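User: I'm preparing a small set of examples for a lab meeting where we compare how different chains pack in three dimensions. I only have the primary sequence for this one, and I'd like the structure in token form so I can line it up with the others. Please keep the answer compact; I'll paste it straight into my notes.
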Amino acid sequence: MQTGAHPAQAPFAAHVELLAMFLARRPEIVERLQELLNAQRRPIETLQDRAHLCRQFEDCFFAASAITRAQSALRGQLEDARRASGFRPRDMPGMHNDLVDAGEMMIRGFHLWRQTRWPGRNGRARYAHTLFSLYVLRCLELLSLRLWDPGWGSPGDGLAQIQRLLDRLHETAPADQPILVRDARWLLPVAQSPTTDDLAPYFEVAEQVEETLREADRIEIHKASVQMAGGHLRSQLFHYRMKEGVSFDDQGLVLSSRNSNALDFAMLIQALVPLLRAYEETVRNHTPTSRLQLASAICQGLSADPELFVNRLDLLGAYSMIEHLFITKDRDGHAIYTPAGRRHIQLIQEYGACIGRVSQALCEDCSHFEPNANAYSPYGVIYGFSSNLMEHMALKSLQPDVATHFSLEDVFTAGSADKLAWVSGWRKLPHIPPHIQSLFDYPLQFATEIFDRLAQALRGNTIAPAAGLFVMSEDDPQAGGPIASLPLEYIGSSDPQVVSSHKAHSYDPARLLRDRQEGMFVVSYPTEGGWTAITKDVLTGMLGAGRDVRIVGLPGEAAGVLRLMCPNLVRP
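Assistant: Understood. Below is the structure token output for the 572-residue chain.
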């Protein structure tokens, strides 16, 4: 049933009222959820049917005695609005790529109970409260994406309303329940954490945050975004190193992490620039507490690739560019920046100036964040998406006497032995084999290595400037000169004729277009029988290594795009 709202919108005020009603009826709803969890005699197939469990779970909320017909009509609208606005989680077989999902968490709870012991009523009620909180949090995360829908009020007022609902969620929960999230401003980055195919909405939200919210709210959202993105990128490095058994200097690790993260790099720049501005202000005004808080967030953002973000600014800009979002054509067919592209180029320039001014101060403050034994450092937290952290906390609540006073925000601040035990204990559940648990032990050595790389970069490394890309026509007298031709390993094509003429290596057509959407190329262009692209691996593999490269015969339009993608690297 639809209410007539725009497909990319959902009535904000009506959802606030609905969630307030859920919170007021928490005991009634939790009792229904407890009955739903009393499922030990159900067939195994029903205990693994996520879609069916999700419907049954949500039925418990919308069967509340006080719900109106108009409120029933709101069911599913926040999900529909999220998808219509472009935040559609990509289907990733074997991986849960979405916000915390009630059906998924029920399946995991059922699996644990089947492997150990099915709880009595009190145990089921305890987990029912946790699932209630997860569902309301998911709704609040989705509602945060609706702050800028027209016709209801201001984004700042909406954020305050979400905070009041979040506070009420904590107030209505029993004392043995995990807090999960305290600050509503952290919900917006979490809402954007699943992997999607459409990248444009991230930049739209970033611009709206910067233009409409008050400074304190903007800074906290940026801190959350930077810290969670930094943790996500560090976790990728940890996974690759554990799988391949390589060092941080391994060429494959460096190329893979840089080539596949254009969106994360771009969004880090979007959030780091206002944080660096604020940090510079605290240094100037001698406000030590705020200074260290900002320095901690900034350093976590830089930590996944400090060489790139501190010492290789000549390459960072090109790595963070996303061709199809940032470049278009004018009436005459010439390549120009889109509004998002112009904004991003300006932010890259400001980022370079800011990091240059504050790197010495960051180097001084960095010493406060050095990991040490028997204490917790956020440089050692390992996860896939930020929503996974709440999943860990929720599943751990199935055990008695677990720490419940920590929240998502605490994951990204250093702590003593009790916080270390909290993080280390997430995966220590009775149904998980010890050898699997050991794979996710808190990695002190990894955290220390991450920190050492960061500190070294901030101290300043003398690195030769990147070499240049020389774009030449086939009749250019210098086309056969001493500058090395771009090796074919950096050129891929889905056009059989281009491949057969030895101008590129073969690239699967579907994968090429997907990688183009991910921002993995410095330039891509259609040919008669497909597409041809130059991978960003050339930035580190050739230019960063100080080796000039000539590209001969690039079509005029593609050459124009390349100059905009790599404005400081393409030579006249």
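A couple of notes for your slides: The first strand starts at residue 327 and ends at 329. The CA atoms of residues 8 and 81 lie 4 Å apart.

User: Perfect, thanks.
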